[in-house]
Amino acid sequence: MLLSDLDKGVSVKLIITIDEKVFEFDSNVALHHRKEVLFEPIRKDGKLLNVQGNNISVDILLIRQDEKPIIWKNADMTCIRYKRNIYYTAEGSCKGKEFNRRSEYRIFIGEELHARIGQKSIERVVVLKDLSNSGFSFIYPEELEGADGAFVSMVYPARMEDKVYELPLYGKIIRKMSLPDGRMLYGCILLKKNKMIGHYINQKQMEHLAGKKV
Q: What are 10-46's pLDDT values in tens digits?
């Protein structure tokens, strides 16, 4: 699928990596101009978020109902001014591909932890369902008010080589799903990567491949 196939007004997510820190923002297709696709820019505190630089990369993600998302990796996005308005722009010929957000190796956890959720950082008891190099998910007994885009932080005590290490998990809620028993599942993208998380994931993956119980 080409980026130019996106119709005007279609909602997308911009996954912006700045110095290895990942941020996700909602945007939409503003218009098509020549061979480029223009997107509504992201503003924070009235300031335009920069998408250009050697330390910045942008992926464009299209969420589709009942289908896998489409992602355009490293869209080489720039800022332009067109008819007195500022937009983000990317080449319409950029090719996207189906993307499985859960394709990374995930460890089932299933343990209760104390988590701080939302702007007020209210502490709640949640069940950490699973963990990967890029994110984690947790279960809560009911729907959380204002959960969309909320920040979540918790600490997971991971056992590695007969020692327990505290893995800080700091993420942002990017999806939610109702479970058959009425509880809510929330998926989060990790905003702060930690080498220890990667080491823990690798260890558990090797154990799994070796046929050991995870």
A: 999 888 887 766 677 889 999 999 999 999 998 877 8
Token output for 67: 């289908």
Beta strands in the chain (DSSP E): 11-18, 21-33, 36-39, 43-44, 47-48, 56-62, 70-72, 78-82, 85-91, 97-98, 107-117, 122-131, 135-140, 151-160, 163-178, 184-190
Q: How many angstroms separate the CA atoms of 12 and 41, rounded?
A: 12
Question: Token match 């209210």: residue?
Answer: 122
Contact (CB, 8 A) for 17 and 57: yes
Tell me the C-alpha distance between 111 and 109, whole Å.
6
Report the distance separating Cα 196 and Cα 77, nearest Å. Answer: 32
User: What is the b/e burial string over 100-121, where b = at least 16 CB atoms within 10 angstroms of the residue's CB?
Assistant: ebeeeebbebeeebebebbeee
How many angstroms separate the CA atoms of 141 and 187, rounded? 15
Reported for 27-30, long-range contacts at CB under 8 A and 24+ positions apart, including other chains, are 27/88, 30/85, 30/87
| pLDDT tens digit sequence for 59-113 | 998 887 767 788 898 898 999 999 999 999 999 999 998 876 555 567 889 999 9
Residue range 133-183, pLDDT digits in tens: 888 999 999 999 888 889 999 999 998 878 899 999 999 998 888 888 889
Q: Amino acid identity of 165?
A: Y
Phi, psi at 55, each rounded to 5°: -100, 10
